[in-house]
Amino acid sequence: MAKGISRSVSAVMAVGLSTGFFTIAMTGQAFAAKTIRKAPEHVPGEIVVKFRDADPGVRTQSTVYGTLEHRLGANAVVSVRTFVTDTSMKTIRIANDQDMGAALATLAAEPSVQYAEPNYIYHTFDDGVPNDPDFNKLWSLQNTGQTDANGQVGTPGVDIGVVNLWKNGITGSDKVLVAVIDTGIDWTHPDLQANLYTNPGEAGALGTNGKDDDRNGFADDIHGWNFNAKSNHSQDDHAHGSHCSGTIGGVGNNGVGIAGINWKVSLLPVKFLDKDGGGNLQDAVDAVNYATLMKAQVMSNSWGGGGFSQALLDAINKAKAAGILFVAAAGNDGSNNDTTPTYPAAYQADNVIAVAASDNKDQIASFSNYGANSVHIAAPGVKIYSSVKGGKYDWFSGTSMACPHVSGVAALLLSQNPTWNYVQLKQRIIATADPVRGLRKKTVAKGRLNAFNAVNNIVPPSSEPDERLWQDQAFTLESDHPYPNSLDKTFPIHVDGAKYIRIVFEKVDMEAGYDKVLVQTPKGDLVEHISGTLTNYVTDYVEGDTVNLRITSDDSVNQYGFKVSKIQVIK
Predict the structure, then answer these.
(1) Which of 18, 245, 368, 400 is catalytic?
(2) What is the mean pLDDT of residues 449-458?
């Protein structure tokens, strides 16, 4: 059965589509040289104490426990257990784990105590890989160079690095509440059911009595709410919401299907998108407001469309005021969100983190929106295998698939740092991204999500050329205006003695997502692809003395093309 979380919460939420991106009312510190280990885990509030006497008397023990309660407060000692094999050893449980340091110091000062230490938790030293039979299909979680569903062979290590966290026992917490605002969640899916949020104010018989027992304004919202149908039926009738949920929190190591980033988490379904993947502004606003009401810590939003909405921005800002991280898919138009905003990813709210999609070779997906200033980070989003409705599984692609990877890592961070708000989460996720050359001009982080770095606060070093060394050099190059259909033409640019070259476009005007200018190495390796409309745009750099500009177009719309006004070099 679905399980709830221990704190009191008063309402629930909903989820988003299979092609990877939904539309509203349409479709829709310095680099650490070695691993930074987390603090050793211990049973909360429990201390192992070794007395000097082989069988400490009642008076001796009472003196010690009385001293503890004098220091920590009356009733601080909850219970005492004697070791089966050694009567001189006791496990003391104190009422508040936050008093652990003071308790250890007090016990260390007691003459009758030989030593005292936390009741540590241990794990097997396995490889961290769960026993879920389809785990090998999850290249985004562990890329061994396996082939994806498109037949593309991956680059080993191009993944989010979560397996080494699992190996060290970091697998999530059901006390972390993630709102999946989408098409709903399959309540009975074997990889989702155990992590489905249950509203404690509507649990059991209260969930079917037709009353608003927790007085949050929603009757019987035991597992979230359906704003599309105005009911408590938040079951997924599409597939998309369940797919996103599996990436965030598919139950791991249960011998079934797949594993999510969090093996334990509370997934709150907030449904506002219908069986065809469509929803409207009113329902979207209600969904976000409901997630805030329910005290979600992370909102996962794999949907978008429409124009700027003050109503939706106001709802996101309410979530911001509550400290909630709003994770948003960047969009699937292959365009630049800096110049052509896609909402809600492009809202200027500090709690929004917009996510582009990358593939198993660390290349930005051809369909993915990007933005050096407005899209914060990239995450795996091409041929992602996850849970879908009906207890099944499937591969989907889209920034919708990248978004829940970031939501999942945010939840994993919260399992280790339960008091963090959106500020700490967003800063940590961006700062610890893996640097990726092809993402330098595409995202704020200049790289791809890395869960291991995020949890261990590893900030990779920068290897970029010193900006102060770039020198302008006069250079003029233009395409035809307009460029013809079905074009594929390459322009080599060579500078004797150059160590690095980059190009300055006075103007780019290409059919967004279809016609492109490619920046390539002499070997044909892609450094950057440019589409849409830009002015005074500086490309990413190419190492060496030669760079190739390649323009390609399809057989439809022709636009201006490009004009290069100068290049910049470092010799």
Answers:
(1) 400
(2) 96
